[in-house]
Amino acid sequence: MTFLLIIKSLIVIVFLILFLRRPSLVWGIGLLAATTAVLLDTFLGTFGRAEMLAELGFFFYIISGAIFGGAAVWVWGLLRPLVDAKSPVTIAPTETAVPIFEPARAPTAESSATAFDRQMLYNQVRQRLGRDDILDLIFDLGVNENDIISLNQEMNQLIIRLMDWAETNGQTGPLALAVERILTPPPPENLPRLEKITEDSPPTILRHYLLAHFDLNALANMARRLNIDWEQLGAGGKKERVRRLLLYLYRRNRIDELVALIHANS
Q: Which phi and psi angles does 235 have, rounded to 5°?
C-alpha cells in the first residue's frame, strides 16, 4: 500500500513539475486529471472500495468520466501538432535553394528537448510567424528548401517538416534561437560594424544588415550594379527580395561582390 502511494505521489509530482515549468491549459488539465484520479483511488482504498462505490453511486461515474475526459484532452494537446498537419492551408513552393552555410549549434543539448517543448515551439511558429518568416527561418538555418517544401504543401505540414528536419539534424536549439531572432530582429546598433562585414559573415547577419541599412531603391540599384534583373527575383516585400537576392548570389558564389558593394555604398 505504501509503495503504491509513493508511485501515485510521484505521478502527481511529475505533472506538477511539468506544469510549473511552462504553464499551459493542456498541462493544467493533465495535472487536474492526474491529481483527481490519485485522490479518488486513495479515497476508495482507504474507506473501502465496495462500500464507497455504493455510497457514491452514479456520482462515481461522473467523476470517472471527467477524469478520462481530462486525460483525453491532455493527450490531444500533446499530439495536436501532428494532427494539425491535415488543416487545409496551402503554401506554394519557392525557387530551389542549396545549403549555403553550416549553422552554429546552440549550447542547449538536443536530448533536453521534450514533446512539450516541441509543441510550444510549434505553437509559437504557427501563431506568430507568417509565410515569409518561415522562409527566412529556412534561409537562416541553411536548409535546402527542397528538403522541406513540396508542391501544394499545407502550412502546418511545412512547419512540422521543418521541425522534423531540425530534430533529425540536431538543430532544434538553433531553430528555437532562429525563431526568436525572427520575432525580435536585432536593432541596427547591435549588428556587426561595417568593417566586420565580410563574405564569410553568416548569411543571417548579411540578411539583417541589408534589411537594416538599405531600402528597396538602394537594393534595386545594387542588383543592377551586379547585373541582376531586379524583377527576376520575383515580386514581394523587402524581406522576400533580400532573401532572394542573397540566395541568388550564394548559389553563384558571388557574395563577395555584394559585400564589396556594401562597403562602397557606406
A: -80, 170
The pLDDT tens digits for 40-62 are 788 777 777 777 777 777 777 88
The overall longest dimension of the chain from CA atoms, in Å, is 88
Contact 217, 67 (CB under 8 A): no
Tell me the residue length of the chain. Answer: 266
**Judging by beta carbons within 10 Å of its beta carbon (0-12, 13-18, 19+), is residue 20 exposed, middle or buried?**
exposed
Q: Where are the alpha helices (DSSP H) in the chain?
A: 2-21, 25-47, 49-56, 58-83, 115-128, 131-140, 155-168, 172-183, 203-213, 216-225, 238-251, 255-264
CA 173 to chain centre: 10
Q: Which three cell numbers stand for residue 187?
A: 536593432
CA distance 161 to 147: 9
Residue 154's beta-bridge partner residues?
Answer: 90
| Domain ranges for the chain | 2-86, 90-183, 188-264
Amino acid sitting at position 235: A
Q: Is 148 helix (H, G, I), strand (E, B) or coil?
A: coil
Residue burial 202-224, b: 16+ Cβ < 10 Å; e: rest: bbbbbbbbbbeebeeeebbebbe
Q: State CA 249 to chain mean position distance.
A: 27
Interval 101-146: pLDDT, tens = 434 444 444 444 455 578 888 888 888 888 888 888 888 888 888 8
Residue 140 corresponds to which cell in the numbers above? 537562416
Grid cell for residue 121: 515551439
